[in-house]
């Protein structure tokens, strides 16, 4: 996949890693067959291919929203999609990068942030 990262990510380690991963994806859709959230919800943005598009858009400079954050949060990080990917896309690593970038740009409501912090600590 062709990418054009925003200047703020172009010269960072995470940006270079994400770009290399994005370039391997050919959007064949095999990953959706093994993704539990896509199977359950049936929404392209709740599958690996849709999340890859969302992460790509954010890394190319589009402002993420709470909806973007929600779709990334719904990923179980089970990495089933990696087992069926003929291109060897390291989706698990890409979703980690995407979540970090979105987390830095989209504030969570205080109650949700507190709940997530407690879950991480416990």
Care to give the gist of this entry?
With 122 residues, the chain is mostly helical. The chain has helices spanning 7-10, 13-24, 36-41, 48-59, 66-73, 80-84, 91-105, 110-121.
What key attributes describe this structure?
globular; mainly alpha; Fumarate Reductase Iron-sulfur Protein, Chain B, domain 2; 122 residues; 8 helices
Structure notes:
This protein has 122 residues and is an all-alpha fold. The protein has a single domain, classed as Fumarate Reductase Iron-sulfur Protein, Chain B, domain 2 (Orthogonal Bundle). It has helices at 7-10, 13-24, 36-41, 48-59, 66-73, 80-84, 91-105, 110-121. Helix 2 (13-24) crosses helix 7, helix 4 (48-59) crosses helix 7 (91-105) and helix 5 packs antiparallel against helix 7. The radius of gyration is 14 Å and the shape is globular. It starts with 6 loop residues before the first helix and ends with a helix. The relative contact order is 0.17.
Structural classification: mainly alpha
- H/E element sequence: HHHHHHHH
- Give the low-pLDDT segments: none
CATH 2nd-level architecture = Orthogonal Bundle
Number of strands: 0
The domain tally reads 1
Task: Work out the strand percent.
Answer: under 5%
Shape: globular
The helix count comes to: 8
Rounded radius of gyration (Å): 14 Å
């Amino acid at each position: 996949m062709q990418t054009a990262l925003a200047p703020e990510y172009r010269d960072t380690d995470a940006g270079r890693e994400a770009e290399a991963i994005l370039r391997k994806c050919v959007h064949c859709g095999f990953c959706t067959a093994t993704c539990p959230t896509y199977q359950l919800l049936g929404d392209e943005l709740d599958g690996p291919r849709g999340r890859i598009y969302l992460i790509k858009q954010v890394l190319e400079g589009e402002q993420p929203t709470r909806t973007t954050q929600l779709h990334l949060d719904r990923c179980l990080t089970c990495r089933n999609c990696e087992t069926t990917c003929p291109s060897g896309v390291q989706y698990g690593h890409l979703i980690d990068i995407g979540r970090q970038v979105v987390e830095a740009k989209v504030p969570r409501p205080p109650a949700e942030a507190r709940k997530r912090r407690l879950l991480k600590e416990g």
